[in-house]
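Appendix C: a fully annotated inverse folding record. The material below is reproduced so that readers can follow the format used throughout the book. The structure is listed first as tokens, followed by the designed sequence.
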């Protein structure tokens, strides 16, 4: 399974590289190779990937790998200073990437058997995280380069069924000023690191058990990131702040990190978040070749829900952190104007269907899991079809379509919770029945001490157990 998954992932990365080159862009493999020397875009993500790899190593080797990565980063920083290299990006992270690759070489040349397989799995997990991020960025560039028309008017019209929550939450975030915006922006941008924190808890026993758990958050996270952008190509949407506002220029005066990007000349009108969009017949509209078409479904919502699900079995602090990250991410997703409300509903259905599919695969394609995956897929497709072909009816009858949207999402949530809870109840008794029975001990004959033949004192009891 690992070999097939690795080959399929490599084929996907090569395909994205070729497609990016076709549009004159750098692909994920090129971007990742550049970070061997040049300052990386996200050094924190590289160290997070290295942390995932270190779960397979004992503590002494973990500290050795971490020290090596930090030492290499110091050497790279000194070399750039000496040669006066000017480049954008983080000043750290190259060392972590070299350590990951070095452990891969070590696994092939110095390890054998099960130890080689375990270390290669750790290296593969780390590379999937860091290269997967580059693949996601390439997907976004391809959406803006190849999809010149967007469907925002359809989605914004359908969003009237929910009361246009992006406009409402956008006013709230705007009212909080620089403090509220930058706090949410930090939480929104560190979603991958939050996922790594939950994954490290799930993988904490790999070094001692010498095996990965059957299911963990990293699998779900990566599948979401690899499949979600494919939907962007089918359903290109840029978001309310771009299609109905002046882009991220709206936050330029208070943002500490975000880059300003104005889209006023492409927008329908400068309405977000002050004025609700009018209910009119929607049409597809041309848009620039810079803004990613990354709204439908909301993958930030999907990732935050995945973190929330996988943190439920952790300690109390981890459960609270998972709930906090979910609420904060949903607030930022709507409040920044990056998504419509209907995007979030599609994102929830999307992630629960993926999570159900992965768990069903682990259970040998159990019938109840297959039914849940089929139902979730049907609901997801039905949502996309309704947003595209019924937006005007949804906007004119919000009292009907609003509850229907929430009911459709709730039905998938209920089906997921019911199915997985039933699986856990069946698994626990099965685990108990696999405990080895107590060994039987023969009853040992006791020597005669006194009394007549075949008798013993009343107080003497057999010493053996049956």
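Designed amino acids, in order:
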């Amino acid at each position: 399974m690992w070999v097939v998954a690795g080959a399929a992932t490599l084929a996907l990365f090569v395909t994205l590289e070729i497609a990016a080159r076709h549009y004159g862009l750098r692909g994920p493999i090129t971007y990742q190779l550049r970070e061997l020397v040049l300052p990386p875009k996200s050094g924190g993500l590289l160290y997070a990937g290295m942390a995932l790899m270190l779960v397979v190593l004992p503590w002494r080797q973990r500290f050795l790998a971490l020290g090596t990565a930090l030492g290499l980063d110091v050497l790279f920083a000194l070399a750039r200073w000496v040669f006066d290299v000017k480049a954008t990006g983080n000043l750290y992270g190259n060392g972590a990437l070299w350590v990951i690759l070095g452990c891969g070489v070590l696994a092939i040349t110095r390890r054998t058997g099960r130890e080689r397989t375990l270390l290669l799995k750790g290296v593969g997990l780390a590379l999937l995280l860091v290269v997967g991020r580059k693949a996601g960025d390439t997907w976004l560039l391809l959406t803006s380069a190849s999809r010149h028309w967007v469907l925002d008017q359809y989605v914004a019209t359908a969003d009237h069924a929910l009361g246009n929550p992006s406009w409402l939450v956008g006013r709230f975030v705007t009212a909080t000023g620089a403090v509220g915006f930058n706090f949410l922006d930090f939480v929104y941008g560190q979603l991958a690191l939050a996922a790594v924190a939950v994954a490290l808890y799930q993988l904490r026993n790999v070094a001692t058990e010498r095996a990965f758990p059957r299911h963990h958050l990293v699998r779900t996270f990566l599948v979401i990131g690899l499949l979600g952008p494919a939907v962007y190509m089918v359903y290109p949407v840029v978001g309310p702040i771009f299609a109905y506002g002046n882009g991220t220029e709206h936050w330029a005066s208070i943002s500490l990190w975000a880059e300003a990007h104005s889209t006023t000349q492409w927008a329908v009108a400068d309405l977000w978040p002050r004025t609700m969009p009018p209910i009119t017949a929607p049409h597809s509209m041309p848009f620039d070749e810079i803004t990613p078409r990354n709204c439908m479904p909301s993958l930030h919502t999907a990732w935050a829900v995945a973190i929330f699900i996988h943190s439920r079995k952790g300690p109390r602090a981890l459960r609270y952190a998972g709930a906090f990250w979910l609420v904060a991410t949903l607030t930022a997703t709507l409040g920044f104007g990056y998504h419509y409300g209907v995007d979030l509903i599609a994102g929830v259905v999307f992630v629960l269907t993926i999570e159900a599919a992965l768990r069903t695969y682990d259970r040998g394609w159990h019938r109840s899991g297959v039914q849940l995956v089929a139902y979730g897929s049907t609901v997801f497709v039905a949502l996309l079809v309704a947003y595209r072909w019924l937006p005007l009816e949804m906007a004119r009858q919000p009292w009907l379509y609003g509850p229907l949207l929430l009911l459709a999402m709730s039905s998938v949530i209920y089906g997921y919770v019911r199915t997985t809870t039933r699986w856990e109840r069946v698994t626990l008794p099965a685990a108990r029945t696999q405990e080895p029975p107590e060994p039987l001990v023969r009853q040992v004959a006791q020597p005669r001490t006194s009394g007549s033949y075949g008798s013993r004192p009343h107080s003497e009891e057999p010493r053996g157990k049956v």
